Each structure stands twice: as structure tokens, then as C-alpha cells.
Amino acid sequence: MKNHQKLTLLFWHRKSKADANGLAPVICRITIEGEEPEELGIGMKVHLKNWDIENKKAKGSGSNEKKTNLKISEVTVDLTRHFQTLQNQYENITPLMVKNVYKGLPAKLPKKTPKPEFEIVPSLLQVTDLHIANFKKMVEKKLRSPETLKQWNATRKKIEEFLVNQFQLKDMDLSSVEYSFAVKFYNYLTIDREKVIGEAAAKKQIKNLKEILTFAETSNWIGKNPIIKFKCGGDETDVPPLEYFEVEAIWTKKITIQRLAEVRDAFIFQCFTGYAFQDVYGLTPENIIKVGIAGERWLVKDRGKTGVSEAVPILPIIEEIIEKYKSHSCRLTMGQLVPVNSNQRYNGFLKELAIICGINRELNTHLARHTFADIMLNIMEFTLEEVSKMLGHKTIRTTQRYAKVKRSKISKTLARVKGIVFTEDGQLRKIAS
């Protein structure tokens, strides 16, 4: 099969779509003789004064002009390559077929296939909304967690807030997003924002933004993710667990205010089960099962965040807390094992609890989970694999961020196994291999 059709590409400046700053989009017109032409937005904008009508490219030495001309070259190469591939497959090629393949679609779409939602390049927040909509579909299919969806919505709000405060814009063109956008966004979240967030939390927001821009790249709305080199990995903040004497001080403190006593019990419950806030909130008597010949009572529940089963033995202190609230309204009315407030109120009351218990650091729900990992690994001497299973982690690597082996554990292990290799006077034993 030999196709002799010819492809013509014309890049032009759509001045009628210029924005308030005088920037207008660059359009590529795809033409094949005898066929209806198609237009394709390349995702770049050029100022009205900086378009070379004769040479069909941006003029000037600015970074945007350079990027635009580079994008024109890339689009030319890609469209030509796709056209040449189609020549080996079809006797007749239309500009729409070339456009479809460039966008990652089948060359010939079924007649009932709906048109793409965006025929021109969407804005930053529009791409964000599309990405969140796709994630929501995965949540509906139970492939992703509803809690993670909430985090994506929070990221969307922060991006919108940043655009207003930093650029006085309600939205931004994708072509205007550069590497410096990520740096400024990070600084805004950690320094300039009225209510700043921690470095690890801020980098999580940048990581989400990076994923959104990667989605835009794979959709051919931008040539390359401009913030791909911004480092977000390996940035988890080390959260030192509470010392055991601090946990003991919280548990033994006599508290006369009922709401704080209930918060204390819920916090200690977390420290000895490792359950995250949303999982403790959802625990009911049905989550208690009997395991093994001895019929040990365990708490078993799928984690809300990952869906991984989290199973922990019920320790005596947890039995005491469960028994304490057997006639409480949380059990009788709502079916909960322990009374748990909303996350915001819970963390607020924990600040009060820290003060009255003499704990010189901020208490929060996540700290309890880290404390559980430390107690299980270093004091009760469970293995890292066992701790990982109890925390409901998918990988040991995640558990290693929660639990660090302390010198005291190494000392205990040494005292227990030293005699295997050394005699009492320090000499090497003879061990059969």
C-alpha cells in the first residue's frame, strides 16, 4: 500500500483569543489536499508583539519565545511522524486522523464517540478538576480511598488560593507554569501563608501538583512537566515517638473533666493499637474477634486509607478502656468502642491534655501511631515484620519510617544472644557449622 498524500502544517497566532496581558494562543492548522483541515492548540501563548507573521514563529530572545519555537518544532516532528506511519496503514488519510493519533486516540474514532471535553488546552485548575474527577471514579470503583480524594480536593483549594494571593489570578494557563511555580508554591505554603503548613505537608502538595502536570503532559496539553525535577521523595519528617514514661504519665493522670478524660482514653487506645483516627472512629464490637486455640481477643479492621487488613491483639490496657465504655452513649447509640470527637476537636483537646499532663510537645493522632510502633518494636520486642502487619502497611519500607530500632533494644538482644558466640570470660566458643 502506497499513499501519496501530502501533509501541510501551518502555525498561526489566534489574536482574537488574546487575554488581558496580550497573550494569544499558537494554533497548528493540519491540511491534507482534498480533505477538511483541522486545528490543534499546541499549549503555548505568545504576546501579540512577539509573533513573526512571515516566518510563523515567535520572535525575541525571551524564555517563553524560545519554549514556543521549541514546541513548534516538536509538534512538527510528531505530526509528520504520525502522518508517515498512517501512510503505511491507510489508503486515505484525513487531518482528523493525524490529530487523533497525536492526541493518543485511535485514528478513526467510532461515530458515537463523544468529542474530547477540551478542544483547546485546558487551564491549570481545569486539568486539576479533570484529574480529581478521574480519581473520584476510582473511588467509586473502590480502587482508591475516599480519604485520599479529600486530600486531592484540599490540594485543589490550596492551588486556587495560591493563584489568587501570588498572581492575583483566578486561574492560570498551563503554558505559564514554570519550575519557579513549584518553588513559589512551596514557599507560600511554608512561609507566606496566613496558616502555614509543615515542610513535609507542603512537599506533599507539590507532589500532587507534579502528578497533575504529568497528567497534562500525557494528555498532550503541555510538552513536558515543568516541575518534574522538584524533589519531593524521601522528604518524610522523622516523628519522634513519645517516650514510655510520657505515655504512662498520660494514662495515670487523674482527670476530672469528662471530655478530656475521654480524649485521653482514645489517645491511649491509639498508642496501644496503632489505629489511625478514622479507623478508631469506625471501630465497633464487631471488630473484636477471637484468634487461636486460646481464643485471644483481637481487633481486626481494614484500614480506611489503604484497605489493607490491620489486626492487633487486645492488650490489657485496651481491654480496660473497652470495658469502661460498655454503657457509654458512644456504644449504646452509635455502636463505637470508644468515644471519639471530630478530628479537629480531638486534636484541639489533645493540646489541652498535653498541658495538664506535663508533656512538653504537641500531641496529635498521628503521633500515637508512631508511639505504638515504637512500643511494639523496642519495648515489647516484636519484629519489624510483625509491627508492619499490625500497622496494616503494604511494605516494610513504610514501617521503617514509623519505627526506629533503639540502642536499648540492641542491648537487650546482645544480652540474650551474647553467650551463643562468647564464653563468660569473653573467648570465642567453638560452634559447629
UniProtKB/TrEMBL annotation:
Gene3D superfamilies: 1.10.150.130, Intergrase catalytic core. Residues 237-416 form the Tyr recombinase domain. GO terms for molecular function: DNA binding. InterPro entries: Arm-DNA-bind_5 (IPR035386), DNA_brk_join_enz (IPR011010), Integrase-like_cat_sf (IPR013762), Integrase_catalytic (IPR002104), Integrase_recombinase_N (IPR010998), SAM-like_dom (IPR025269), Tyrosine_recombinase_XerCD (IPR050090). The keyword DNA-binding applies. Keywords: DNA recombination, DNA-binding. PANTHER family: PHAGE INTEGRASE-RELATED, PROPHAGE INTEGRASE INTD-RELATED. Belongs to the 'phage' integrase family. This is Site-specific integrase. It comes from Mucilaginibacter psychrotolerans.
